[in-house]
Amino acid sequence: MKKIKLKYALNLQKIMESGQCFRPVNLKNGRYRFINGNRILYCRQESDFDIFVSCGREEWDDVWTSYFDLDNDYDALCEASEETEFLKAAVEYGRGIRVLRQDPFEMLISFILSQRKSIPAIRTAIEKLCDRYGEAVETSCEMGEVRLFPRPEALEHAGTEGLLSCGLGYRAPYVRDAAERVSHGTLSLREAEFLDDSDLFQLLCTVHGVGEKVACCVMLFAYGRYESVPSDVWIQRIVEKKYAGEAPFSSWRGAGILQQYLFYYALKHKEEFVK
DNA sequence: CGCCAGGCAAAAG
DNA sequence: CTTTTGCATGGC
């Protein structure tokens, strides 16, 4: 394990619980496991500014720094916005959260199947998909075998029946359609990187089962579009309770990042927000 | 058992 | 164009 000193606060537990990722785990021996594409990282947290990682310095700099968005000063974003009392409290409470830059296909599928599911149920469904259709990888740390998120071809060939057996329900055809389009090259998630926000949004919405909210999640969590602000039931509750029904987020720079603090705060204070 | 879940597409008004 | 409705299944 190599020790890394961080420029900005990073908190693995908060990231794991912030609803933007579904596969990272706390292994309960003080170690966390993150998966980014075909790379696997084990880490142990000493403080918000010191972690031990299983990779070398080179891989950390090349792969994980951008995954954890560690060149971005989130506190500066907060100060630059038209800050509200609640935003300040939420940023304080959630300090160490990072908006991860995750694999586009994984995000597309994950958020398509997330609709009308609780976060624990989303995790269960995704793990089943990985166990059945993901490539098995042996880790060097004697941590056993890990399954990667399935490739588009694997989900395409899983068939609606296979997807149904992972608990996808009525979303199975949506996932199949998306996997097929990516697998056939009809939808190029790599070229989508070069589209501006508006074109990217419209492209994502052409996928069956992708609406405004899912498209925003993919833009924010896979493509680093930090002005993208997914609006779901939790955000609507926050707007009602704390902003008198009118969301000021959309005008903030880095609104997607700041909104993530609000979302995390609400998730961890359910009593306060559930009607 | 009943209720709800990081919504969406299709139908109806 | 805006509003309503049906949706499969797991977690609690």
Strand order of the largest sheet: 1-5-4-3-2
Count, helices: 13
Shape: globular
Task: Tell me the distance between the termini.
Answer: 46 Å
Quick one: how many beta strands?
A: 7
Q: Compute the CA-based radius of gyration.
A: 18 Å
The structure class reads alpha+beta
Low-confidence stretches: none
Q: Return the average pLDDT rounded to an integer.
A: 95
Q: Strand portion, in percent?
A: 5-15%
Helix content: 40-55%
Q: Report on the biggest sheet.
A: 5 strands, antiparallel
Helix and strand sequence: EHEEEEHHHHHEEHHHHHHH
Structure description:
This protein has helices spanning 12-16, 57-67, 74-80, 85-93, 104-114, 119-133, 152-164, 172-184, 197-205, 212-222, 233-242, 255-268, 270-273; strands at residues 2-5, 25-26, 31-36, 39-47, 50-53, 136-138, 145-147. The protein is an alpha+beta fold and 275 residues long. Helix 7 (152-164) packs antiparallel against helix 8 (172-184). The strands form two sheets. A five-stranded antiparallel beta sheet has the order 1-5-4-3-2. A two-stranded antiparallel ribbon has the order 6-7. The protein contains 13 helices and seven strands. It binds a DNA duplex (13 and 12 nucleotides) through residues 19-20, 111-112, 114-122, 124-125, 164, 167-172, 174, 208-214, 217, 230-235, 263, 267.
